[in-house]
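Technical note accompanying the year-one report. For the benefit of new consortium partners, we illustrate the data format agreed upon in the data management plan: each record pairs a sequence with a structure-token string. No post-processing was applied to the example shown here.
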Amino acid sequence: MKLLIVRHGDPDYEIDSLTEKGWREAEYLAERLAETDIAAFYVSPLDRAKDTASLTLKRLGRTAEECPWLREFNAPILRPDLPDKRKVCWDWLPQDWTAEEKYFLPEAWSETEIMREGHVGREYAWVAENLDALLERHGYRRRGRCYEAVRPSSDAILFFCHFGVECVILSHLLNISPMALWHGTCAAPASVTTVVTEERRRGVASFRMSAFGDISHLYAHGEPPAFSARFRECYDNEWERRD
């Protein structure tokens, strides 16, 4: 089984849609996905993800099931450097989160005082439980850290969603802390991440990521990746985002 996880195109957050560049990215994405045999489509309820999906769905004559849990991950916290203002839990200064060893541990990352106060573990569990329920519909039942291949297949299913929740999905499937993914990776807008099952012994499946944040379809059209979800490469680069 293959899971294709697509981040929405370059966003216009003020209107929860896409920029002009984002619409171009969505068009090139649709062109790429038209060559892929996809069994089912799932989409976030937020418009920037639905707008991204719309061009692919129209091109293929398909529809997508809207899943509330595919919305952007929503569990704001009081960050150590901003104790009076709630921010998304997946955007910390590196000198703060890396100082806490628990954030590197898949069983303990959500148990710090900051994460408990923001109910982050509860939001994570909601996403993970809904993901597992959907995978069971497709023939894979969670058993501990692996999956029982009840009805194994080579079907591909596709999620149109957001970077924060994409990292939660990968964290759950790969059994690693989402903190390392949130802060150590960047899936550019309109990128495609591929996760594939491996069934090395009959009936026992695990997931392996074979591609992360692929934007070859943008490069094929001479379209550079958007800077969204990244921060300035050097502090003095005034044209790049700092916070």
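Partners are asked to follow this layout when depositing records. The helical segments are 20-33, 47-60, 94-97, 113-117, 120-137, 163-174, 178-184, 216-219.
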